[in-house]
Structure formats: structure tokens, C-alpha cells
Amino acid sequence: MNLSNKSPSDHIDKFNEAFIPTREAGLKRLKEFAPLAGEIYSNKRNFDFSSIEKNSVSALSPWIKHRLITEEEVIIEILKYHNQHSAMKFIQEVFWRGYFKGWLEQHPTVWSHHNDKLIKEYAKLENNRFVKESYMSAVNGETGIECFDFWCEQLKSTGYLHNHVRMWFASIWVFTLKLPMELGADFFMLHLIDADAASNTLSWRWVSGLHTKGKAYAARASNIEKFTNGQFNPSGQLVENIEPLIENIDHPLVSLPQLHQSIEKDAILLLTEEDCSPETSLTDNNLEVEILPLYLDKKYPQWIKPSKSVRSFSDTAIQNTCQRLGKPNAEERNNTNWTDTILETSDRLGTKNIIIPKVPVGAAKSKLRKIKKTLAEHDIYINEHYKNYDMHTWQYASKGFFKLKKQIPNILHQLGLS
């Protein structure tokens, strides 16, 4: 039962005001939230009141995903108000994002398998009217499950959902609506302004029982009623006795590559939506760097474009970074043809020294991989380098989160944050 009598559209303006894709807006939100990151966050983080102002979560994910603000900056600000112990629940949530990225880096076949399956599931929609109708009801918010339909509209109209809502939504999609997990994960990728290949894909797999094999997450009406403060209670509408999904495929562990930043001359620094603070990884402050922004017009699969809000946030984040780094002219080039853009810039500047912070598994990495062969024919190679946070975090992300969790105090010390 929906006791609020409000539609998601009532909150659109406030969400748009909250999520401005600039570094300045991210830092402002961080400063507002930091005093709340201790006991208040720990006790209230699971509640969703469908309001940015009323919720006790940080809502920093859109800026962190694009690294308009970095994980280290977030932790530094939090520790101005709290000690590690009192803020550890929030600090752990920050590290979950790094865990997912590091885990997917070391199990890359999960991403390729997921996308192969996704293409097949979209094709099946055209050949199965029943599944197509069920899918369209879900993405149009017409399932008759009031909370799910509300969240669906909220997602499409604002580009954001509370993390607990994402878990409920995914569980209902997979176990109650019996829809393919891959289609649900892609629905999020196409509409969330903080959509991240690792966090999103692995979270859906975790809910479905594929990440932690044999352990799935059931959305329960009583839990939804409690943590929406009585706004919704889908009693009798959900499948709560669930069986985890299974897959008959192993995803081998792949060692992280050894990367060394060795730049002896001026360079072209590639800028993508994956890292809008690329300058923080450069060890030589005197290096003359040409910023070259590269834009993604589509997510995977290639024929599907993300929502306008997703594309707008990412593109504006890149443009804001160009302005901040003193390259205002760079923002005018909407470079979606990466090969030609890199070749033209290399020829114009007379350098083949192309650098970029390590690009994690996802759409940007897939596109870079496709163009590397052509660039190599021109004796141009893209040199990646780790950021300190990723280097210290990803090495502990080969298995479950507990392995990384135990190392958090040590990582904070190594990063000079303790």
C-alpha cells in the first residue's frame, strides 16, 4: 500500500538539483554528508523515504563513479568528523565499490559472458511474446506491484535509486517476475546516472545467487514495509521462498597486470567518464599534458543508447573536468570516434606517448581494446597506470569481500589516511 500518494515525478526537480555533474557539486554534497557518516548513517542507512533530504545515505555514488571526487577524498573528509571505528560502516561501503571493480578485473570473463547472454536475452524477447509482455510491463512500471512500479518510474525519471531499493528491485525482477537477470542489470545500466559495470553487474549477480554461489537475496514484504517506513507493503505479491540461480561456467582468476608509470616526455592524457580526476595519478607535476576527452555514446550492447540523463551526466562530467584542468576548448569536441581522434591528436602534437589511468572492465575498456590494434599499426600504444587507491585495494579483491574488509585499516595506513 502506498501511503504517500506521491508519484516519483514529484521528486524530479529535487533529484536534478541534487545531482549536478561537477566536481564542485560533489564536494558540496560530501561536506554536507560527512558529519552524518557515523552513528546516524549506520543506524538509518537501510531506510528509504523516497527523498534525498530525508534519506541518511551519502548519495555520492554519481560523483564517485565518474571520479569527479575520489574515494580517498571521501574518506579524508569523513575522518575529519569521525574516527575509523565510528565511521567504519560507511568506509566499508566505499570499499565495496573498489572490491567489485577489483574482483571483475580478476574475473573478466564474467563481464564478457554477461554481455553475450544479454544479447541472446534481447533476441529472445522478439521470439517469445509472453516474455516480451512481462518485460515491457516491468520496464513500464505496470506490474501491479505498487512498490516496484513506483521504483521503476523513479529510476527512469531521476536516474537514481536508494541502494536497498536496488536490492529489492533486482530480487523482485528475478524471482517474482521471473525475468532474465541480465535484462534487469542492463535496465539499470541504461538509467542509473551512477551505473558502473562492476558494481551493477556483480550486485545483480549477488542478488541472484551467482556471485556468492548458492546464496540469493529475497525481497520480503515485511522488510520493505519496515524500511520504507510503511510507505509500501506488497504482502502476498512477492515470491519469498527462492532458489538461487545457477550457471554451468567457471570464471578463472586472472592476475592483475603489472603496470609502471614511466613517462619521460610530454604526453596525451586520455579522459573518459571512468575517471574525471586523471591528473591525480600523475607523479610528475611538471609534465606538459594534453587532455584528450573521449565520449561514450552507447553502453553495451552497442545498439542500445542509455537514457538522456545518464548520457548528460557523463558528458557534462567530462566537460567540467576539461574546464577545471584548463582545457576549455577540449570540451567542444564530442569525440566518440576514438581511433580517429587519437590519431589526429597524436599527429598534431607530434607525440605517440598516450597515457591513461587504468581503465576498469566495462564499456570504456571494451572500446579501448577494439581500437588498440589500429593504433598499433601506427606505432601508437596506450600506456595505463594504476592509481594508488586501486593498486592497494584491488589486490585483496580476488575472492569474497571479507578478505578486503580485514585489510581496510592497513590500506588506509598505506594511503596515509589513518
Explain what this protein looks like in three dimensions.
- This protein has 18 helices and 4 strands.
- It is mainly α and 418 residues long.
- It folds into 3 domains: 111 residues, Serine Threonine Protein Phosphatase 5, Tetratricopeptide repeat, CATH 1.25.40; 117 residues, DNA Cyclobutane Dipyrimidine Photolyase, subunit A, domain 3; 119 residues, HUPs (Rossmann fold, 3-Layer(aba) Sandwich), CATH 3.40.50.620.
- It has a 4-stranded parallel sheet with strand order 2-1-3-4, with helices on both faces.
- The longest helix has 23 residues.
Topology:
Layout lengths: L11 H7 L4 H11 L5 H6 L16 H5 L5 H8 L5 H23 L2 H17 L3 H11 L6 H13 L4 H14 L4 H11 L5 H12 L12 H7 L39 E5 L17 E5 L14 H17 L13 H12 L3 E5 L5 H14 L4 E5 L2 H7 L6 H14 L4
Parallel strand pairs: 1-2, 1-3, 3-4
